[in-house]
Amino acid sequence: MFAPTHSPRRVRAGAFTRVAAAAITAALAAAVTMAPAQAVAQGRSSGAPAGRFMLTSPDVRAGSTIGAKHVFKGMGCSGENISPALAWRGAPAATKSYAVTVYDPDAPTGSGWWHWMVYNIPASATGLQAGAGDAAKGLAPTGSMQGPTDFGAPGYGGPCPPPGSKPHRYIFTVFALKTDRLEIPAGATSAMVGFNINANVLAKATLTAVYRR
């Protein structure tokens, strides 16, 4: 977002070019120095611009179909329910921790479906390895917390849309946070976790993939 530029009501014809050039220069400078909190990047597998907060995955490609390895096991689905590996870079220098969520806005619930919430990821982390969504395996960075999901339990739950539905979008998001720890009470809902994440966000990056059955 650029700050509004207020032009004088009257500009002499000879000065118009200089005013326009100054406005364009200011706009470009604002774009280059955009505040980290405004920088929201879409995840891509390659060609990430330098200085942008980016989310990528060797297991899930943006716009592609999520593989069976990461699909839910249960509710009529027969995947392996392994959370994909994720990697990020370009977070703001002020980042003190990270949170990761996976959300399906197309679930027929009226409020979507939360598939994964993990927070209090230390600022030193640059990603999550495959399988980190299973708390029993201990693969998430030390200190991380697995939040509640709409499956009724913490940890990763893969895609499992109703049979015959259109492809559902699964939005993987990493949030760079301005606090080193979110104090989430026991028994909190996914909405409560989401509220606390968004109240402390500096920047976020997303990667969206799809799945249908």
SSE layout:
Blueprint: H1 13-32, E1 40-42, E2 54-56, E3 73-74, E4 77-78, E5 86-89, E6 97-104, E7 113-122, E8 127-128, E9 145-146, E10 168-177, H2 190-198, E11 201-211
Parallel strand pairs: 1-11
Antiparallel strand pairs: 2-5, 3-4, 5-8, 6-7, 6-10, 7-9, 10-11
How would you characterize the overall build of this protein?
Strand 6 and strand 7 form a beta hairpin. This protein has helices at 13-32, 190-198; strands at residues 40-42, 54-56, 73-74, 77-78, 86-89, 97-104, 113-122, 127-128, 145-146, 168-177, 201-211. The radius of gyration is 21 Å and the shape is globular. The chain is of the alpha+beta class. It contains 2 helices and 11 strands; from the N terminus they run H-E-E-E-E-E-E-E-E-E-E-H-E.
Major sheet strand order: 1-11-10-6-7-9
| CA-based shape | globular
Q: Structural class per helix/strand content?
A: alpha+beta
Residues in β-strands, percent: 25-35%
Question: Please, how many helices?
Answer: 2
Poorly predicted regions are 1-50
How many DSSP E strands? Answer: 11
End-to-end C-alpha gap: 40 Å
Name the helicity range: 10-25%
Helix and strand run: HEEEEEEEEEEHE
Rg over CA atoms, rounded to whole Å, is 21 Å
Q: Report the mean per-residue pLDDT as an integer.
A: 83
